[in-house]
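Slide 14.
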Amino acid sequence: MTGYGERRGRAGVLWRFTGSGPHRVLPDAAMDLMWHRGRLVVAGPDTAAQVDGSAPGETTWGLRLAPGAAHALLGVPARELADRRVDLADLVRLPPAPVARPAETLERVFAALWRRADPDPAALRLAASLDRAARALATAEAVAREHGMSERTLRRTCDRVFGYGPKTLMSIHRLQRALRLARAGAPLGEAAATAGYADQAHFTRESGRLAGLPPGALLGRR
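Slide 15: predicted structure.
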């Protein structure tokens, strides 16, 4: 069986992917805790598409972490994990976890990390607010002003929490929205305009920069 599925779990969005061979993983402005090839792995924030070399039929389980959660739980600036897949054991020490049920294991590990870190709710609320602003395509100047910080402080905060600055965070959300619209059947020009691009050419350039391919190729339209 191949394909992708997800459901809301107690600790966040649990997903499972069974591939048919190497595939392209696009930036999605998220960090994940994954059960991959018999290891607990942290997927850092991607600034460009990653080509996953999974074998046909190989299944990966993941837990998509809320904005700011990875930094809070691991105590590592997200910037240090950008475009990397790192064994969880290299970042934190935790008791061994059972692995018979990967989804349950991911939630247990998340709960253990949460108890250990005791995250600051205010920091998580700030991360969620910055993420929402990026989804709304707010400029860095406007976001900084709204949150009472300088643009330099905003940049440092985003680097620490998301792994890149507010402009990149916004660009990734815009690309993901345009692709979702196009997958739902919207023509590329309409998807580009609705997602906030100046025009379809702008959408194509950003897709090439972040995903490594133009949108038509990503969507299998040519």
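Speaker note: The mean pLDDT is 93.
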